[in-house]
Structures are given as C-alpha cells and as structure tokens.
Amino acid sequence: MKKIIYILSSLFLIAGFIACDQDTTGTKFDFGGKDYYTFRTKTTTINASESGKASVNLYHLNSSVSSSVDITVEYDEAAEGLFTVTSSTVSFTTDTEPSAIEITYNVEDLEFNVEYHILISVPEQTYGPKSDVQTIDVKIINPPTFNELGTGLFTSEFFEDEWEQVVLWANEVPIYQLPDLFEPGYNINLLLNEDNTVTVDPQPAWNYNANYGDVYVVGEGVKEGNVITLTLEHVVWSIEYSFGAFEEILVLPETE
User: Fold this and answer.
1) How far is CA 138 from the centre of its chain?
2) 208 contacts 13 by C-beta, under 8 angstroms
C-alpha cells in the first residue's frame, strides 16, 4: 500500500501539533495534583454477543494517585430499557491500567443491525490535554450472520492499490461485508438499499495508534451490475481529522 507511509507521516505531524506530550501509559502534563480522566476516543462500536456483556475503558491520566469518578449515562430511545451500565462510579489505583465500565444486555432482545447508542460521560474538566475525550458514544449492534459469496476485487484510491477481497452476504439484512478490508480485524459493512444505492455508516477501518485510536470510514455509493462504486472518507475520529473523500471500487464475485 504505497500511500501508507505518507499517511502515517502526516498523522505524526498532526499528532505533534495537538498532543500534550502524552504517551500510552501515562502523561507528562502537569495536573497540579488534580485528577484527569479520558476515554481517548469519541465513539466505539461493539458487536453484541451471547455473553450479554460489553465494556468501555476509562483512563486516569494522573496515575500517581488513587481516585474514583462518577459517570453519567444517557441511553437513546432504542437502547432505553435494553442496556444497563452496571456502575455509576469508576475507581482507579496507582497503576497505569484503564478501568472498564461494564454494560449488560440480553442479546435475544436486540434486533439485527440496529444501532443502540449509549453516551457515557465524566464531569467536565477545564484543564488538561485538549485532545482527550470526556464523553464517549458507545454504539452496540447485534450483527447479522453471513455467508461467503466468493472473492472479488477491491481497488482503493486512498491506498493506491488493489487486491482480491473476500465478500460476505448477510442472511437477515441486505448487507455486504468485506472482512479485513484495510487491516486485519476490521470488517467493513456496505448496506444495499432498495434503489441500489449503498450506505457506509461510520465504522472503524484501521488503527493509527493507542493514543489516537481508529481511523473510520464513512460514505455512500451505488451498485451497477456487479460493481459497487463508493466514495469513502477516512477520518481519525478522536481528533476530527479527515484525509478527504476517495473513490473505492468493489467488483463482486462472479456468483453475484
């Protein structure tokens, strides 16, 4: 992927401009003895599972002292009554590990491919690194089941490359899934609408690093015959930096 070195170099410049001399295990920012908490990302997407549990990490950047912080929780209309954040207080010791906020649910109560949103916040902090995040939008989805259609071809303007791409089709809803599209472990879903337009909701596509988290893609396109032409924007979500919109083309497997 020819463009990746340039992309990462650009992000290093951006990170250097906005960062607060912060690393993944702590911070050199002077808090004046105060506590400081951050989620480090503004949004996260979690696939529901039969375990009925999910978790979100909260970081305590002034790790030299033990502390606890109260959190507030807002459920959207779809999530109300179906999800429970199990504690209203998060505690930290003097180590540098984040604390997990647990969310419980019954997966049998969740519809397929519906976004359930939960906003979790810590109290407003007017000091500390401006790049950190005090509210996180937790999006939980009950993913559909998929069957493999075969192998197609993906051409990326963003990465200036093309590669063979496995394509899956959902059983419950009209969605193509592209496993490991830009990076292993990141599957991209394309929703096929009745008019053959395609919607790509914001979803993590590849990871920059532990501090700035995932790069998301969002966009739309159209399916004409066996070809889906997309316009995708790549966004570093945590710092609201966009690389712009790029044309990405998927040729579906012959069986389509």
Assistant:
1) 9
2) no
Domains and CATH numbers, the chain: 36-141 (2.60.40.1740), 144-251 (2.40.128)
Query: DSSP letter at 94?
Result: S
User: Model-level pTM greater than 0.70?
Assistant: no
| Residue 89, beta-bridge partner list | 70
Residue 165 structure tokens: 């791409």
Is the distance from CB of 146 to CB of 168 less than 8 angstroms?
A: yes
- Residue tagged 């995708």 (tokens): 232
* CA separation for the pair 239, 216 (Å, rounded): 12
Burial 90-112 (b: 16+ CB within 10 A, else e): bebeeebebbebebebeeeebee
Instruction: Return the sign of the alpha-carbon dihedral for residues 69, 74, 79, 81.
Output: positive
8 A C-beta contact, residue 213 and residue 224: no
- Cα–Cα distances in angstroms (integers) from residue 33 to residues 65, 66, 88, 244, in the given order: 9, 12, 24, 41
The proportion of the chain whose per-residue pLDDT surpasses 90, expressed as a percent, equals 62
Q: Report the distance separating Cα 218 and Cα 220, nearest Å.
A: 7
Tokens of 201: 């909701």
What is the Cα–Cα distance from 237 to 216, expressed in whole angstroms? 6
The sheet with strand 43-47 has its strands ordered as 43-47, 135-141, 115-121, 72-75
The tokens describing 208, both together, are 């920059």
97 pLDDT exceeds 90? no
pLDDT of residue 165: 97
Residue 57 has pLDDT above 60, yes or no: yes
Interacting residues of 105 by C-beta distance below 8 A, sequence separation 6+: 48, 52, 53, 54, 82, 83, 84, 140
Task: Pick the most confident of 1-15, 52-66, 102-116.
Answer: 102-116
